[in-house]
């Protein structure tokens, strides 16, 4: 039986960062802004009339939270 060597996670991350890649675990921001996203989605789904106008504060909280993780939303 042959043994095959695989690079460690540290080596992979070091290689990616040396190439200028932004190393972030996938989904890390969405897990941390779950409450803000849920509140925004609920407001948008169940609002009467203009959802963007009536949910402005929930949308702004979500955008602000995402911006804290380096994401820029329109």
Could you please describe the fold and organization of this structure?
By secondary structure, the chain is an all-alpha fold. It is built from five helices and no strands. The protein starts with 8 loop residues before the first helix and ends in a 7-residue tail after the last helix.
Compact overview of the structure:
By secondary structure, the protein is mainly alpha-helical. Helix content is 59%, strand content 0%.
Order of helices and strands: HHHHH
Number of strands: 0
- Approximate strand percentage: under 5%
Instruction: Briefly note the structural class of the backbone.
Output: mainly alpha
User: Biggest β-sheet, characterized?
Assistant: none
Helical fraction equals 55-70%
Radius of gyration: 19 Å
Instruction: Sum up the overall morphology in one term.
Output: elongated
pLDDT averaged residue by residue? 75
DSSP summary: helix tally: 5
Which parts are unreliable, with pLDDT below 50 for 5 consecutive residues or more? 8-23
- Measured distance between first and last alpha carbons: 54 Å
């Amino acid at each position: 039986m042959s043994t095959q060597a695989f690079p460690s996670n540290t080596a992979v991350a070091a290689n990616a960062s040396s190439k200028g890649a932004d190393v972030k675990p996938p989904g890390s921001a969405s897990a941390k802004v779950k409450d803000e996203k849920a509140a925004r989605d609920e407001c948008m789904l169940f609002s009467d009339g203009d959802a963007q106008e009536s949910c402005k504060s929930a949308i702004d909280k979500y955008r602000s939270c995402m911006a804290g993780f380096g994401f820029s939303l329109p």
